[in-house]
Amino acid sequence: MIRSQFIGTSKAKPPKLIGLLIDRIGPVSLFLHFLAFVYAVFVISHFGTEKAKIQENALLAGLVEENWKDTSKLDHFLRDLRRNVGDKKSELSDYIVNALVKMGVEVAKHSFRLTPSSFLTNSSVEKANVYGIVRSFRANPAESILLAVPMRSSKIEAVAVALAFADYAKRQSYWARDLIFLFIDGGDKVAAEAWFADYHGHRHPFIKPLGGDADDLHLELHGGQIIGAYVLDFSGTIFSHIDLQFSMVNGKLPNMDLLNLCVLLVEKAGTVTSIHGVPQNRGMDDEDYQKSAKTVIRGILAQSMNEVESLASVIGRYGINAVALSAYTAKNNDEEREQQHHSSTIVDLVDTVRLIEGAVRSLNNLLEKFHHSYLLYVLVSPHRFVSVAFYMPLMGLLLSPLLLLAVREWFRMGGAVQLASVSPALARMLFAPLVALSFYGLQLFLYADPRFPARTLAVPLTLLLPLFILGVFFLIPISSPLRANIHFARFALAVQLALFLGSLSLVHFPLALLLSSLLLPQAISTLIFDRKWFRLIAFFVFHPLSISLLLICNTSDFCNSPTKCWHRLSSRIIRIVSAHFFHDSWLLPIFSGPVFAICSAMNQIVFCDIEEKYNENIEQKEEAIEEKKKEE
To answer: 107: which strand partners?
Structure first.
């Protein structure tokens, strides 16, 4: 334990154990990161994970016997949709409205228009969602259950399933909650955002509701508080497996009970689930380590860089537990289809309607909000997961070298008595966060202007301009006759990076882990080496841009040509900007703010000259202080 009386004096020295670790900081850092890798390999194995189970007994999951048997009604809707609905959205919208009215379901349209901005095309076009509400019979409509469906011609099978279930649900008398059937215009995530913003009385700055009073944010029809939601997003009539999409914006996840409920009902229907596009094995005894590792890696990438992957991602922004069911069409190859049929994994639209019935009826049994199960977890397979208590030690092992480096630089600086002399370093260190804040504000201003050609200048503005600014920071190094300034800058960088990644991991673990893999190699190698040329080599070899380019070049279909690479980068940046404007995603401010500021600060210290012997400097300072005391 470091005693405070030593930290605040020039004679401050670390305890022997910490001093031993600091003297061998290079091997210690490598060992800690190797230990982190071993721990990650273990924690996603069958021995390091926990079995997933439904902890909310009131759901009565799987005990409900599905009663829907009106296949003729499903065939009728499917036949009518294929025959009468063309490519025009108005035809599909009118058909849904008429069908719901014939059932006796309360139905309304929600019209809106997007505010013009640089990254939108045809923002002046009026859009409209259709929604109907089946009122509860057994209780006051204080709560609701939502079923969302993309409203476009390529998803008419999902529309037919929703209409068939709505017709069945209207004739039942056991509903304790309202059932809301939401048909989203074009399946667009912004259209879903518009409806949920109005439903919750939120005025979205980039969406204008149409019809009625412009200041009235309430919908024509309104249900109770939504306790759970399902999204049907599939096309075709025969499916080999069902993909569960549950990632939400900014690292949020649905309650595990809802996810486990979907897994149980999918397997009860006779098929298998896939997680993040990886088909899983059926049953509880899933010990395929390679598949588990692939699922975890894809999940980290999807949750960190593709936050708005489904309509469920948008729904989760409003505190609603939601899961999207995206069915994979069975292959047309007769031999493979016959093999799948014998393995009992083929399901059709009839099974899908029954699956939805079981899922909605389970939520109808719920006595209170989801609260028994986990909200922070990493899903390894449909039946196994890693809880927050077991994956957070991984971040501790990754960030430990930064803390040791911070302690080393603190004692090299001379402790707290030298804080009064580090104002030059502090002044130059303020440049990085101020420039990062200005850069973020510049992007907000330009992208919000409809005259700005975002699709042409997205890469120069968001990618090339910060690279140029980072180069300029090489010309603003932390240099001073007093070496305490340099050590303070290195100390502040280590603490800043550790606090940023550590706090981010508490709310968005996948993004924190991804940023750790990009930032830590360069930061630690730059801080470990005292010799300038070693630092320069490590700085450029482990630069985040070098690692990113290496990953991009290994992607076979990403950069076949410079034009294709440019367009893909541009579209990716536009998606990130759009997610920030419409769905309050953190990606743009995180990369433009703290990540950019930390990279700029590393550029400032990489050329610092710190090759002298520190023990001699400390002894000279101690002698000078003792002489002053004697004179006094």
So the answer is: 132
